[in-house]
Each structure stands twice: as structure tokens, then as C-alpha cells.
Amino acid sequence: MSRSGNFSWPVRVYYEDTDAGGVVYYANYLGFMERARTEWLRHLGFEQPVLAERFGVLFVVRAVNIEYLMPGRFNDSLQIDVTVLETGGSRLRFAQQVRRGDDVLASAQVDVVCVAVASFRPQRIPASLRTAIEGVTGNHNDGAGI
After folding, report:
1. Which CATH superfamily is domain 7-137 in?
2. How far apart are CA 134 and CA 53, in angstroms?
3. What is the rounded CA–CA span in Å between residue 19 and residue 72?
4. Across-strand partners of 112?
5. Which residues are bridge partners to 60 per DSSP?
6. Catalytic residue among 17, 19, 81, 142
7. 93, 113 in Cβ contact below 8 A?
8. Other CB atoms closer than 10 Å to residue 16's CB: what's the count?
9. Which pLDDT score, from 0 to 100, does residue 1 have?
10. Domain regions of the chain by residue span
């Protein structure tokens, strides 16, 4: 992860990731992005089960805007990029890209919301996680709003 908050996670395309046309099935890009966000959290020192157990929260996807630009194919080595664009009281907005070398295969904006495990109602992002995010992104938000 760079000081700007960019994080990248490698993914290999397996046969099971492809469709009948031999290209990555479109929905699998979302799975690749999900894995990268999970690894981003892990890199910051936060495991999802610990967030649920210790803080009583988890993250759910609220919105995704994705563009498919080029096909990925079986056995491609991809990089999945994660960049935090904005933080709110309970929301994180990410920019994500799926790349093969310099080629961008898919680009997305993903909004996730921190919610209570029991009720699925929005909850403030735990202070320790917010501090870790601010430490790598340089974004200091007062946490107001979603």
C-alpha cells in the first residue's frame, strides 16, 4: 500500500472464473474486488470476523457502478486496485480497478456501509479503523454524515 492509500492484490484467473466464451464472467470481477477490499482491511490490521465480534459491525455493499472495458481470460495474472475516495460516518467509497499489466479491464466505484451485525442498521466506523484509514490515505474526515 502506498502513502496515498492505494492497495493492490494479485488474482489469477482460473477456468472456473470464465464463461462459455472463455472470458472472465462479468460477475466474477465483483468477487475479485471484494477479495481485494478484504485484503486491504487485513493489511490495515482488521479481520472481518474480529470487526463483527469485537465491534459488532460488518461492511455491506450499498452501491456499485462498474464499467467493463476489456476481457480477462483464463490464466491471466491480474491486479485488483483499491483506493479510498471518501469516508463518512458509516460509509466508505472506493475506486477499484482490475488490471492486466497496464490494461484496465474493469473500473468501479463501490460504496460500502458499516452496519450493526444484529440489525443491519448503519453504525459509525470504529474509531481505530477510521484512524488506520486516515493514516494511509491522509484523508481526515470528522465522520459526519453517511
Report:
1. Hotdog Thioesterase (3.10.129.10)
2. 23
3. 11
4. 61, 92
5. 113
6. 19
7. no
8. 8
9. 38
10. 7-137
Question: Residue 75 corresponds to which cell in the numbers above?
Answer: 490464466
Q: Which cell goes with 109?
A: 466505484
Residues 6+ apart with CB under 8 A from 141: 86, 87, 88, 130, 134
Rounded to two decimals, what is the model's pTM? 0.89
Residue that the C-alpha cell 490464466 belongs to = 75
Q: How far apart, in whole angstroms, are the C-alpha atoms of residue 49 and residue 117?
A: 11
A 10 A CB-CB count for 117 gives 13
Residue type, 74: F
pLDDT attached to residue 109: 98
Return the H-helix or E-strand segment holding 110.
Answer: strand 103-116
Average pLDDT on 124-130 reads 95
* Total residues belonging to the chain: 146
Distances from the Cα of 33 to the Cαs of 37, 80, 113, 127, in angstroms?
6, 6, 16, 24
Any catalytic annotation for residue 111? Answer: no
Nearest one of 138, 143, 77, 85 to 114, comparing CA atoms = 143
The residue type at 88: G
